[in-house]
User: Which sequence fits this backbone?
């Protein structure tokens, strides 16, 4: 069995405050590095984040955006492999709250 990848995740201010975390956290991911596997690892490591990024059915919340290597991957399949730079820990996966209003 291979060693878990250490994935860097950057969180928006509101989630940092909610879970009392730094701006960037590291989470171990075993197997394929996908949005689903990273978010599952993040929720396991920091239970206060459960239900904030994804709903309780596992679907990304509409006002949350996910960026990998400066690309919005929010609407990609949650099981699609993230870029190698994310999997190697060279780049962070960014989670952002969408801005809305008028």
Assistant:
């Amino acid at each position: 069995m291979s060693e878990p990848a250490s994935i860097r995740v950057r969180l928006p201010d509101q989630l940092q405050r909610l879970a009392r975390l730094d701006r960037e956290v590291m989470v171990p991911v075993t197997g394929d590095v996908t949005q689903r596997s990273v978010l599952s690892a993040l929720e396991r490591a920091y239970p206060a984040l459960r239900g904030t990024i994804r709903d309780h059915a596992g679907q990304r919340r509409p006002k949350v955006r996910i960026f990998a290597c400066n690309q919005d991957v929010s609407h990609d399949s949650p099981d699609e492999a993230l870029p190698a730079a994310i999997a190697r820990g060279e780049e962070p996966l960014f989670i952002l709250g969408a801005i809305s209003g008028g």
